[in-house]
Every structure is written in structure tokens, then in C-alpha cells.
Amino acid sequence: MSTAAPPALDRLSVRDAVAADMAAVAAIYAHYVLHGLATFEEVPPAPEEMAQRRGTVLGQGLPYLVATDGERILGYCYAAVFRPRPAYRYTVEDSIYVADGLAGRGIGTGLLGALVARCEAGPWRQMVAVIGHSGNAGSIALHRKFGFVDAGTQRSVGFKLGRWVDTVTMQRALGPGDGTLPQT
Questions:
Q1: What is the pTM assigned to this prediction?
Q2: Rounded to 10 degrees, what is the CA torsion of 38, 44, 47, 50?
């Protein structure tokens, strides 16, 4: 049995998510809500709720992206406000989900690369990843690939699927990071 990663998709493209994508986005997320530890939600949000969440992200001037093969939505990602207090205004948090069974095909790489590039073009200076489950090797490796470094682990902060779950926090600078002061 081969342990090689599945082949990358030939027609992968990343674009801004539109309202019509939200049913597919909700279906991708529902898998993780019901069967995984990457999110601490326990009830899958309806497509309408996912559309509202997308609207909030876009209303804050942040990107919400999908990966497609020309026909299907293969994954999605977005940046969100890290915390609501004003001092956090230059820090965003990323979220990324790839459709079940499609890991290792370059979808996450395409999504996170595009998200980082879009955020670097804006005023943000730090990106944080809060990764559900310290055993989520795929997400941790993906973030490391893009220069994220470990910023800490919170032990047993969630309880899902009958077990205690950690979160791993990773972080990377965007653009000049903290090397210069932001323009206010």
C-alpha cells in the first residue's frame, strides 16, 4: 500500500466566495462539526447561517475564499477579526476547511496561500491560527509551510465527541509585521 500523498488537482482555482457557494461550504463544514475536532461547534450551521457569517467577514473588509475544480467547491477559508477590542485591529485569525477525502491534494495550500496574500495586501500585520486538536498534523504542517510558528497549546479547553480537546495556536507576521508602525 502506497503512503504517497494523493495527486494534486489539475484544475484547482481559488476565488472569492459568492452567495451561491454557501450550501457547499455549509456541507463541507458540517462534516467537521459532526465528525471532527477541528472545530468546537457541535451542531452544523444551516447554509443561511454560513451566509450570514460570510457577510460579517466581508463587511469587515476581510477575504472569504473558495477553492474549486471548475465545478465543485473543494474547500474554503476566510480571515476574521481575531478579537473585538480595538488594539487587536491589525491581527486576523484564519479558518480553513477542505472537503472530506480531499486532503493532501494541494487544496489547503492553494487556499491558505491566497488568504495570506490577500491579508498581506491589507492593513493587517499578524495572522493567528487556532487549530482544534493538537493531533491535527495536517493543519499544523500546512500552517508551518506558510511560516506560522507555534505560539502555544491550550490543554483540554474543549470537550467534544466524548473527549477533551486541545487547541494549538500558531502565528505569522503579515507584510512588515511588527517591524514598522501601522499607518493610522
A1: 0.94
A2: -50
